[in-house]
Task: inverse folding
């Protein structure tokens, strides 16, 4: 990736305080900054998004081997391609209830037949030295079972969001990984995505003064009956599936945990899709610094995925903020135009972070405790909607109480 060292000749701290004009640039890691003037010439094809991880790609024999459990839409559409652009991870195993699908995907992705498992014989993965990490990509209520079995097999675990369907199951996953001395990371891709990380620095460095208010939404339409609409399999419907992006990203931006939640839910009475889960949920969160948040998520709206922070002297955010491609940052006042950050493969970013943690013995930035805290907030949202009262949450005075060291 092209590298431009923007800060050469500048004292970074003075530059930030001098004026809001350079706010975007001043808060971006130099290695990911590309200025409008240095963008690709008009008409040239957009570069394929790759991993934003630092350094050169590792040779295959030094990479960390991952097995994917669950070969559904996320795996086939995003994760298999992500291994091709990752710098530190390689695909070495597949786990599926459908042998023909597993065989086909193994052939296409260079996985040996001996490294294909089904849900029953999965525990044999213990003997597979090529697999160091198991990536759990199953319906939510199956995450704990496969995390615990992976830990017992001595494998590190990368688990999709939401972590599980109850606090008890989240805690069991943390305990199992701790007992087996393996790492547990929850796949919060936004926290590894460079534009969102630039936004986090703007909040933390008070680029426009302290943030007073954040609004965020994540809505889409779920047209057909599927496990996301099942209470037993999804746990929390739209809140855990898409609303979790609003919850988790606001926590990531501020570094604070909400002290109080107030929520309302809506379920159209005659729509068969919403017999077990809600269609649309709105909620507010209050933070110790005084920051307030307003959020909406839905399985029944046009695609909307954004956030906007309002600070003392400006407003900034991303629209869209949560899709796989086409993320856009904005800020007002905005003079001169903001720099561009190259789009990266969000799944390769998180694979590479997990691989880095394994290679260098680091704690993941988004460990199990981060997922458990989201589950605590999800449960407070439902309790508030049920009781029509604000729900108080445990108070954490330290910033980032659940996150590991900042990824390199
Ligand atoms: P999907 O329905 O496309 O795939 C689920 C897979 O699990 C399928 O291969 C299916 O055969 C298998 N499965 C096993 N038992 C099942 C059962 N009882 N019911 C249904 N399927 C069963 O789902 P997906 O969209 O790939 O989501 C999988 C996980 O990934 C979920 O936890 C979801 O929240 C998460 N996810 C994350 C992102 C992200 O951006 N990080 C995006 C999509 C999904």
Result:
């Amino acid at each position: 990736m092209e590298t431009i060292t923007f800060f050469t000749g500048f004292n970074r701290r003075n530059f930030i305080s001098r004026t809001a004009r350079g706010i975007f640039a001043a808060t971006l890691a130099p290695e990911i900054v590309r200025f409008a003037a240095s963008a690709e010439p008009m008409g040239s094809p957009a570069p394929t998004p790759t991993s934003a991880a630092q350094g050169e790609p590792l040779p295959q024999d030094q990479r960390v081997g991952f097995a994917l459990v669950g070969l559904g839409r996320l795996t086939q559409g995003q994760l298999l391609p992500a291994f091709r652009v990752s710098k530190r991870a390689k695909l070495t195993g597949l786990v599926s209830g459908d042998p023909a699908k597993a065989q086909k995907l193994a052939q296409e992705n260079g996985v040996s037949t001996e490294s294909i498992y089904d849900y029953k014989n999965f525990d044999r993965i213990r003997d597979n030295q090529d697999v160091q990490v198991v990536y759990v990509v199953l319906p939510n209520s199956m995450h704990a079972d496969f995390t615990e079995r992976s830990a017992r097999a001595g494998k590190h675990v990368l688990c999709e969001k939401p972590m599980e369907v109850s606090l008890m199951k989240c805690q069991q996953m943390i305990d199992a990984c701790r007992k087996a001395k393996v790492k547990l990371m929850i796949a919060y891709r936004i926290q590894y995505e460079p534009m969102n990380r630039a936004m986090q620095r703007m909040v933390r460095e008070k680029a426009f003064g302290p943030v007073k208010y954040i609004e965020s939404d994540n809505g889409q339409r779920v047209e057909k009956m599927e496990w996301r609409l099942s209470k037993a399999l999804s746990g929390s419907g739209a809140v855990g599936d898409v609303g979790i992006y609003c919850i988790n990203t606001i926590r990531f931006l501020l570094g604070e945990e909400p002290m109080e939640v107030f929520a309302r839910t809506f379920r159209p009475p005659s729509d068969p899709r919403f017999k077990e889960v809600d269609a649309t949920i709105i909620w507010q969160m209050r933070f110790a610094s005084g920051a307030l948040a307003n959020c909406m998520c839905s399985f029944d709206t046009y695609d909307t995925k954004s956030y906007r922070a309002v600070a003392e002297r400006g407003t900034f955010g991303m629209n869209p903020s949560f899709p796989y491609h086409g993320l856009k940052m904005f800020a007002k006042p905005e003079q001169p135009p903001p720099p561009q950050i190259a789009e990266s493969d969000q799944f390769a970013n998180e694979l590479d972070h997990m691989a880095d943690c394994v290679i260098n013995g680091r704690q993941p930035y988004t460990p199990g405790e981060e997922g458990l805290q989201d589950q605590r907030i999800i449960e407070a949202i439902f309790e508030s909607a049920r009781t029509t009262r604000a729900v108080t949450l445990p108070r954490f005075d330290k910033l980032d109480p659940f996150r590991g060291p900042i990824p390199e």
